[in-house]
Design brief:
Number of helices: 5
Number of strands: 10
Mean pLDDT: 91
Largest sheet: 4 strands, parallel
CATH architecture of the largest domain: 3-Layer(aba) Sandwich
Strand content: 25-35%
CATH class of the largest domain: Alpha Beta
Oligomer: single chain
Structural class: alpha/beta
Strand order of the largest sheet: 2-1-3-4
Distance between the termini: 32 Å
Order of helices and strands: EHEHEHEHHEEEEEE
CATH superfamily of the largest domain: Class I glutamine amidotransferase (GATase) domain
């Protein structure tokens, strides 16, 4: 008998912040994918959803989709403590590592923070998949993206799953020469 290991798993998606990253639309994509995998998903548009640590501890996954916002300590610490106790956290693009620019504790928890996207939007670049201990990228090959190329400062303890090469376009960063910058990672 085959058992679906995701049955009864719970996820919280918290959407908001800058509308340019389309938090509502991105949240819908994540919500649908998680529900198709058997997750029970709560969707919220307030950071106050982070206030209840006990509720967060009952989750399997937290997905922040919030760009350039402000988070206060009462909202921040229950998330940090829940993640430290084993609740998963996942995100993408500016919704996680550009979520709260003034919160170094958030950046420390996520393992990175957005610094720049040289060339702005519409840059075509390649994402190079790295093989490691994580099954997350199994079956995924290198691929090309046309978007904002994210230059991030990252925690040295991350396990890099994918990189992109800078510089793709000219700019003040180009004098540093070629740099493979992490784009997908895990952090324990």
């Amino acid at each position: 008998m085959e058992v679906n290991n995701t049955m009864n798993k719970k996820a919280l998606i918290v959407q908001g912040g800058w509308d340019g990253h389309e938090p509502v639309q991105v949240a819908d994509v994540f919500k649908n994918a998680l529900e198709e995998s058997g997750f029970e998903v709560e969707l919220s548009d307030t950071l106050d959803s982070f206030l209840d640590k006990e509720k967060l501890l009952g989750l399997d996954l937290i997905i922040p989709i919030w760009t350039m916002g402000e988070i206060n300590n009462e909202q921040l610490w229950p998330v940090i403590e829940a993640v430290a106790e084993g609740v998963g956290i996942a995100g993408c693009h500016g919704g996680m590592c550009d979520a709260f620019r003034n919160s170094v504790q958030w950046q420390f928890m996520t393992g990175g923070n957005w610094v720049s996207h040289p060339g702005s939007d519409g840059v075509e670049y390649e994402i190079n998949i790295k093989r490691g201990s994580s099954p997350i990228t199994e079956g995924i090959e290198d691929f090309t993206v046309k978007s904002e190329q994210y230059y991030l400062h990252v925690d040295p303890s991350i396990e890099v799953l994918a990189t992109t090469r800078f510089p793709v376009i000219d700019g003040p960063h180009a004098t540093n020469g070629a740099v493979d910058a992490p784009q997908i990672w895990t952090k324990r």
